[in-house]
């Protein structure tokens, strides 16, 4: 029997407004073989956001109960709200050999690296602070207070960029998208070439006539 070849766990992080969700959605259209993990959060939904599609929106008490039950692979407080990745779905998909993408912050990424050192992490940088602010305001989804808090927190987040395997600067959108796709393809190709993937063929070639 061949060994179970698990999928790859990709992590994408960025300061709020850098374009992470837009890039990830475009990447998933180009690479439908990747499954996006939907997080649980205590953040209220933005206009147009749907339960189970963008996030599982939960009350604080429910989130705390879930933490106590140990359902999360990682969880963290970000910009005053709680976010967590459920263990079960991610684990099942990886075991089926699917690649999984987590759109999480640097704290979550640091937790995942400890338990899943084979994960591949990408940090998205905006081309400038001015552009980050322009995008955050231009999105039109948050109050002034929320925007200011996210901008204030962005320095602390960017300070962790060097912990990631790859950095993609999201200046021209298509270039950034090509960059992330190139990372995904290179990682997949490397994985295809790994020795364990070829056990069956090696066995056949070694078999006596
Ligand atoms: N640790 C962790 N961070 C998360 C998770 N889900 C989302 N985040 C991060 O929380 C931050 C805020 O996300 P969100 O409220 O959707 O705002 P946005 O980044 O401005 O779109 C971002 O850095 C997300 O990547 C999660 O499950 N775990
Ligand atoms: N390369 C880009 N150039 C200009 N605007 C962009 C670019 N990438 C994303 N945006 C816009 O910036 C805003 C923030 O993007 P979003 O994906 O919501 O960021 P994040 O998920 O990192 O908070 C959105 O209005 C999006 O359309």
UniProtKB/TrEMBL annotation:
Entry-linked SMART domains: GuKc (SM00072)
UniProt entry keywords in alphabetical sequence: ATP-binding, Cytoplasm, Kinase, Nucleotide-binding, Transferase
Alphabetical list of CDD domains matching this protein: GMPK
GO terms, molecular function: GMP kinase activity
Leader peptide range in chain numbering: none
Keyword set includes Ubl conjugation: no
Presence of the UniProt keyword Nucleotide-binding in the record: yes
Ranges where the Guanylate kinase-like domain occurs: 7-185
Function recorded in the entry: Essential for recycling GMP and indirectly, cGMP.
Listed PANTHER family: GUANYLATE KINASE, GUANYLATE KINASE-RELATED
Name of the protein described by the UniProt record: Guanylate kinase
Source organism of the structure: Dyella mobilis
């Amino acid at each position: 029997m061949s060994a179970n070849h698990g999928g790859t766990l990709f992590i994408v992080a960025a300061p709020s407004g850098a374009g992470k969700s837009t890039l990830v959605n475009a990447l998933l259209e180009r690479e439908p073989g990747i499954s996006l993990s939907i997080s649980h959060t205590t953040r209220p939904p933005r206009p147009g956001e749907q339960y189970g599609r963008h996030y599982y929106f939960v009350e604080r008490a429910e989130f705390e109960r879930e933490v106590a039950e140990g359902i999360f692979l990682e969880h963290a407080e970000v910009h005053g709200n709680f976010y967590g990745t459920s263990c079960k779905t991610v684990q099942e998909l990886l075991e089926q050999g699917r690649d999984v993408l987590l759109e999480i912050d640097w704290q979550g990424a640091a937790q995942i690296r400890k338990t899943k050192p084979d994960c591949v992490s990408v940090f998205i940088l905006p081309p400038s602070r001015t552009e980050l602010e322009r995008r955050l305001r231009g999105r039109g989804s948050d109050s002034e207070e929320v925007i200011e808090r996210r901008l204030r927190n962005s320095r602390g987040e960017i300070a962790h960029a060097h912990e990631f395997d790859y950095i993609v600067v999201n200046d021209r959108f298509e270039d950034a998208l090509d960059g992330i796709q190139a990372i995904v393809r290179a990682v997949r190709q490397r994985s295809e070439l790994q020795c364990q993937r070829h056990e069956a063929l090696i066995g056949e070639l070694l078999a006596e006539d």
